Amino acid sequence: PRDDGGQWQIVDDEATGNYTYRQSAINDNKLHIATLEGEPLSDGTIEAKFKMTKDSDSKVKIYFRTDSEGNGYVAYIKKSGNNAYLYLYTSRYYALGWQIGSTLTFSNFFSTPNAWPSIKIELDKESIKVYLDGNATKAIDQIHSTYTSGSVAIATDSLKDIVYFDDVRVKRTPISEQYTEKPTLPFVPDNDGGNWIIMDDGTGNNVYAQLQQKGKFRSMIPDVQIQDGFVETKFNLHYSDPSSTLSGDIGEAFSVYFRMSEKKRGYELRLVRAGNNLTVFLDENITGETEKLTKMGGIQNFFVDATEWHTVKVKFEGNSVKVY
After folding, report:
1. How wide is the angle at C-alpha 79 spanned by C-alphas 103 and 53, nearest 5°?
2. Which of 231, 247, 255 is nearest to 182 (CA)?
3. Mean pLDDT, all residues of the chain
4. What is each CA distance from 74 to 23, 27, 281, in whole angstroms?
5. Which of 101-115, 148-162, 217-231 has the lowest mean pLDDT?
6. Structural contact between residues 244 and 253, judged by C-beta atoms closer than 8 angstroms
7. Strand 267-274 to strand 252-258: parallel, antiparallel, or no bridges (unpaired)?
8. What separation in angstroms does the CA of 97 have from each of 4, 89, 100, 104, 146?
9. Among residues 293, 243, 282, 289, which one has the least CA distance to residue 265?
10. Is 195 helix (H, G, I), strand (E, B) or coil?
11. What is the mean pLDDT of residues 304-318?
12. How confident is the model at residue 246, as a pLDDT?
C-alpha cells in the first residue's frame, strides 16, 4: 500500500476459507492504492476478481503501465445501485487524465449478492482492451501509445462500503529472442524523400545506403512492432563536415528509431559525427511535439578509419534503454 492510508488487510472472506485482500477505509472520499511488486509490465494481461458490497457509488480501479509519479493508465468500475460502469483513462499523478474510448454500461451487473465479478486488461503494444467477466465482445478496445511500461496497482476510490480483491494475476508477454538480418528484410522509405538504394559497398557486400545529402530522411521496416527487445545494426558515416558541431542537429547523423507508433511517434537514438568524433543522443519524444534530446556520451576520434564499419545496439525493456 502507498503511504496515503487505507486499511488493507488479508482476511478470510466471510469465514469461507478463501483468503482475500480487503480495503475497508470507507466514507473518506479518498483514493487508496496498493502496488503489486515485481518487474514493470509492458505487454501482457492483468486479471482480478473483486467484490463490492451494498449499493453505493464506490469505484474499483486498476492502474497499469504507471511510473513512480502515477502517470500511466487506469481502468475502473463504478458501482451505482446494481449497475456497473466501465471506464478507461490516462492517469496523471494518479488523478484521472483523458478518457480513452466510451463508457460501457452493464445493467444489473451486481444483482447477485456476494458475487465475485472479474476485470481483465489485455496489453499488446499500442492495443489496450478492457472487459468484465470474460465478455470480450463487450469491451473497451482502443489504440493508445503514450505509456509503454510501468507498475500495476489495485485501488479503491470514494468507498461507501468494504471492497475485496482476489486472484489478482499479471502475465507478461515474453520477449522474443528471434531476429531477422537485413538487407534481406524489406525497408520502405518514408515520404520525406531521400535516395535509398541497395548497393555494393566496393567489397562485394550489398548494403542499404542513403545518398541524399542535406536533409533528414527515414526508412521504416514494415510490419515490425517491438515493445521490449533490441535493435542492432552496422553503419558507416563516410563523410562529415569538420567545421560542424556536436549540438545534435548540426553534422552528419545516423539514427535508429524504435517503439514507433503509426503516427511516427517514438524514440530516436541519434549518432552524430563531427569531424572524427562521435556523440550519442537519445530523443525521448513520444508525443511528437518537441525534441527532448539527452546526451548519452561521446567518443573522440571514433571515425579515424573511413572504411571501417561500426556496430550499434540499443536494448530497451520497460523504462530501461541501454546503448553500446
Report:
1. 155
2. 231
3. 82
4. 18, 22, 32
5. 217-231
6. no
7. antiparallel
8. 20, 6, 9, 18, 12
9. 289
10. coil
11. 82
12. 39
- Tens of pLDDT, residues 143-173: 998 898 899 999 998 888 889 999 999 998 8
* Residue 58 grid cell: 464506490
pLDDT value at 247 more than 50: no
Residues 242-255: what's their mean pLDDT? Answer: 55
Cβ(142)–Cβ(128) below 8 Å? yes
Distance from C-alpha of 278 to C-alpha of 312, rounded to nearest angstrom: 12
Q: Higher pLDDT residue, 280 or 243?
A: 280
Reduced to 3 states (helix: H, G, I; strand: E, B; else coil), residue 75 is strand
- Here the cell at position 61 is 480501479
Gap between the Cα atoms of 58 and 133, Å rounded:
19
- What the block records as the C-alpha cell of 143 is 489504440
Is a pLDDT exceeding 50 seen at residue 249? no
Q: Which three cell numbers stand for residue 258?
A: 524504435
pLDDT of 244: 43
CA separation for the pair 20, 165 (Å, rounded): 6
Give the residue, 245 or 199, on which the prediction is more confident. 199
Burial tier of 25 (Cβ tally within 10 Å: 0-12, 13-18, 19+): middle
311 C-beta neighbours (distance < 10 Å), count: 9
Q: Find out whether the peptide bond into 117 is cis, omega within 30 degrees of 0.
A: no
Cα–chain-centroid distance for residue 294?
A: 20
Question: Residue 13: phi, psi to the nearest 5?
Answer: -70, 95
Residue 304 burial (CB < 10 Å; 0-12/13-18/19+)? exposed
Q: Which three cell numbers stand for residue 29?
A: 472520499
**How far is the C-alpha of 42 from the C-alpha of 64, rounded, in Å?**
9
List CB contacts of 142: < 8 A, sequence separation 6 or more. 88, 100, 101, 127, 128, 129
Sign of CA dihedral 7, 11, 13, 19: positive
